Amino acid sequence: MDTRESGGSLLPDRSGLVEQMRAVLLVYVGVAVVLGLVFVGAAVLDDPVTDFLQDPIARLGGRYTIGILSTFGGALWCWAGAAAALAGAVLLRAGRAAGPPLLAAGLLTAALGVDDLLLVHEALDTKFGIPEPASFVAYGLLGVWVAYAYRDYWRRAEFLLAVLAVLTLTLSVFVDVVFVGNYHLDVFEDCVKFVGIATWSLFLGRAAYFELLSQVGKASPA
């Protein structure tokens, strides 16, 4: 790839049309795969394809206030996942030890965000009979694997933020599974879950940020 120095960073040469076309082709292939899955999913589940394409509030005629906190939570999941995955990919290419753990944690966090936004665990329960607790256990095991496989790195991370995030998210799952249908506990569960998501996003976002600062030679805080 042709590159040039611009403002202290190495950018792709804007005259490289071949490189741009490759990038566009890659994105469009991804878009085609997603759209293909949408239409196949609609056919397999025997649902109108518009259910997959349109915004839920617009499709169901609901108020714009419905699900605001849940949507913010999903956005935080995805933001933290994208930040960590990008930092992990950059650091992995640079041969830094922080690359693999951040990439793994970022991908898992992004998956949790997609699940939270699209309610994948509920769909698995409704359509395929896979109970929600099984999905939670699967995510938990993946989290344990990421923590254990890269334990040398996480030992040096911001421990308090990680512990608070795990505790609040675990409490949220426990209340969600055990106390089903209790209005007050449902409200409590949603609030605790949002606190957990925000704390995890702060933990992972800070880790990605300071690792990248270290990579470009800037001093990270003590």
Keyphrases for this structure?
222 residues, mainly alpha, 2 strands, disordered N terminus
Give an overview in words.
The protein is mainly α. The protein contains 10 helices and 2 strands. Helix 5 (99-118) packs antiparallel against helix 7 (132-149). The longest helix has 33 residues, at 183-215. The radius of gyration is 20 Å and the shape is globular.
Overall, the morphology is globular
Total beta strand runs: 2
Q: How would you spell out the order of helices and strands? A: EEHHHHHHHHHH
Q: What fraction of the residues are assigned to beta strands by DSSP? A: under 5%
Give the strand line-up of the largest sheet: 1-2
Count of helical regions: 10
Share of helix, binned: over 70%
**Overall average pLDDT:** 87
* Class computed from helices, strands and strand pairing: mainly alpha
Distance between the termini: 38 Å
Largest sheet: 2 strands, antiparallel
Runs in which pLDDT lies below 50 for 5 or more consecutive residues are 1-7
Rg calc: 20 Å
